Target: Zinc finger BED domain-containing protein DAYSLEEPER
Amino acid sequence: SLSSPRRTRQIIKKEVHLPHQEANQTKKEKMETSLEVYNDDIEMRSPERQPIKRRKKKSMVWEHFTVETIEPDLRRAFCKGCNQSFAYSNGTKVAGTSHLKRHIAKGTCPALVHAHAHENENENENGNNNMTTPYTPKSETPRRRYRTHNITPYVSFDQDKCRHEIAKMIIMHDYPLHMVEHPGFISFVKSLQPHFDNVSFNNVQGDCVATYLAEKQNVVKSLQLIPGRICLTLDFWTSKLTLGYVFVTGHFIDSDWKIQKKLLNVLMESYPESDEALSNAVANCVSEWGLEGKLFSVTFNHPASKAAVEKIRPQICIKNPGILDGQLVIGNCVARTFSGLAKDVLEKGKDVIKKIRESVKHVKTSESHEERFVELKEQLQVPSDKVLSLDDQTQWNTTYKMLVAASELKEVFYCLETADPDYKQPPSAENWRHVEALCTFLKPLFEAASTLQSTENPSAVTFFHEVWKTQSDLSRAIGGDEPYVAGIAKIMKEKVDKYWRDCSLVLAMAVVMDPRFKMKLVEFSFSKIFGEDAGKNIKTVDDGIHELFTEYMAVPSPPQSEKSEKADGLSDFDTYIMETTGKDLKSELDQYLDETLLPRVQEFDVLDWWKQNKLKFPTLSKMARDILSVPVSAAAFVDHVFDVEPREMDEYKTSLRPETVEALICAREWLLESGDASSSSSAAVVKSEA
Model:
């Protein structure tokens, strides 16, 4: 009998020992499937069609499949969504359900893909923007935990999200916009996602601008929270097309008393040499970002005429008529000034530097030469740990490092002439003396410029010391016995003296706001620098500080609420104190200046000190916040402080529209500052077809 227990065991036994291609099915699944086939087979073959209770199919796949008889001994499973057929049973052989699970779990069923995408759209409309949830077949009650083998979950494709990521990639890594039209890029993207619609240059240009506009909203919000005023720097770049580009950066101290900077604009100037170039850049920035009445100082590194500087002053005085009548216009960027000094030193020693460069090139461009050099160094037991490297002549700090390393290894170079027959024309002893003299001049410049790469401390306070020390060292060098050294020092001192004349007021005011120095260091240093004219220059600083404080006192304080005025019920007492003792009270500024100087500890944080004492000096602390935020360098990026010449915009960017150039450069800086380039706060890219 077909329904006998023996027949059932035979079928089960036979199905358990399936061929190797079915080995990935579990024994339990095979037994269940075999029983299902057996019960169906009973109904088909029994002439009497005995009423046998059929075992219910428990596998979750049957929510998506039906079984149909094709031939008497052939049955196939059909997908309810796409109607694709799959093997189910052939005679007594059963295919199982693993391949059916893969069809629905891996997202190969078009109907399920479409349904899942529609579900995601509904979720997005409801505020659940989860575009990466893998498809999981729904079941009222999970029947059984199935074992999967390295099955990648299905992830829905989103064209707009991909375009947004491409735009961010181009911005972050400074790729050309045209790369989206390159055959290699198109082929690569198609291999990842065949459904991706190619984007054109105009498409991606619009996407990049949209990303810039989204990030710009975050910058606008941060500027609105600035408690004090903002200082601007203008960094001029050139181009082969005689167009100028102005990088406008805002510097300020935030509510937590930390120095911050934001790149605000990259503006193209058709006539960079005109007297209006600087003032136009400032006016555009102030208007675009709503900085009227908030501007405190302007620092730039572009050679400008007196007329050009005078056109900037009204920008500072708008709604700020008392900010020293626009005197905080700093035309001498300290980074450009120090680079100019270094350039003078290198020009004076160019012949010696050329010999050193050729010697270093001999060692570094041949593996055998370098091995011989290292062997000599070890034999001579030279204690220096410096490593030779060729310099980049556009960055003067690399030339300084090359000279320092070569100078410390000069003994090796002396012996290299006899050990290496290919080494010819080594530097002479006099050449090495000149190298040491060059390093003596370059070292303080290098150390001072290196401090500009740190944003932890106010640069004005630091550079008062650096410039004063440099000026004093040059004065001593001029009076020395070495003509070579005196000649270099004389050239350098002329530029340092000019910088002092133009910037001593700003630097000195910053020093006064440091409780370790106040006016005492100004008096001491000016007596050394200006000699007989020291008194006049000291008075200029003192008058400027008091004049500025008076203007801050004149600014009305925010009105207090009625509740706060009556909080302690002593408002009449405050009036009485002012009437009876007000005339004899010192101002905050005089009280601050009369207090004892703080000890000069190395780790002192002047900004944190003002943060802790803002209640004691409520008005003076506001003035200190603005003064200490004044930058002395206009370099838009910290790695440009050692540039020998002004930066030049590359040819590709000059071929783009000015608005696109600004969007690419500013957005890149903002994304880097956010610290999360892979998941920025930008909104979804707006579809734009240029």
